[in-house]
Amino acid sequence: MQKLIWAPIDLSKPSLRILDSAAANGKWIEDVRKSLSAEVQETSTFISTDVTDIFFPKPEPTGISYFAQSMLEDWPESLVGTLDLVHQRLALPAANKAQVQSTISRFIGLLKPGGYIQFVEADHSIAKGPAMTDFFRLLSEIFKVMETGNDYAPQLKRWFEDAGLEDVQEKVFDIPIGAANENADIGKKGALMFSYGVRGLVDVAKTLPTSFSKEELVSLEDRMREENLTSGGVWRLHCVWGRRPVVES
Ligand SMILES: C[S@@+](CC[C@H](N)C(=O)[O-])C[C@H]1O[C@@H](n2cnc3c(N)ncnc32)[C@H](O)[C@@H]1O
């Protein structure tokens, strides 16, 4: 995606307050912090949250605070209206269709007037080969059982606009996977990441009603690895950002 932050924030300004929600191991916020000047790093607040603390790095890197927080719950009162940037990547489907817009509104409530929100989600309707098509179809079927959506990425922009954000912008990235990537090393890492990702999904799928046979489920990981390493694949990401108005109507 070329840049960690697309929202037009002045990253040279001291005392920034940045939250990464559903952060898992918190790599995004570590990379953001490292990319800033020493003065901004020292004066700013970096917060990493996830529904579970099991992925947080141990020991915790200096300058970043970590705490367990579900995006589906109210945030601590001390954070409300205080942040320059709220970021979340690849996690919004944790909010089901009935909850997704209120979840976004709670995130917007954390921003200072003039602060930005930036979300990144994947569009699972775009795939190249038959194995990746199967992977995304399986994901859709599991999301359906969970009453969540696999179509959140293309809806993000409208949800941000409907929530009253200003200057909502979107960039769509087609990330080449495996053999499709010019950089063989990065391509291979991407292909393997998808193979590991499908393993957990297949375990979940075995316990749920899906249209996949046992053989299709068991072979999916190998088929995906083979396809991505030989023909290559694509992963479409939508990055969407918007600003909380300074004066709210
Ligand atoms: C696919 S991972 C994405 C992790 C990270 N944002 C990234 O881009 O590498 C999804 C993350 O969402 C977290 N998650 C799931 N449900 C959540 C919830 N209700 N509130 C906050 N985080 C949640 C999971 O624990 C997991 O770390």
From TrEMBL:
<protein>
    <recommendedName>
        <fullName>Methyltransferase SirN-like protein</fullName>
    </recommendedName>
</protein>
<dbReference type="InterPro" id="IPR029063">
    <property type="entry name" value="SAM-dependent_MTases_sf"/>
</dbReference>
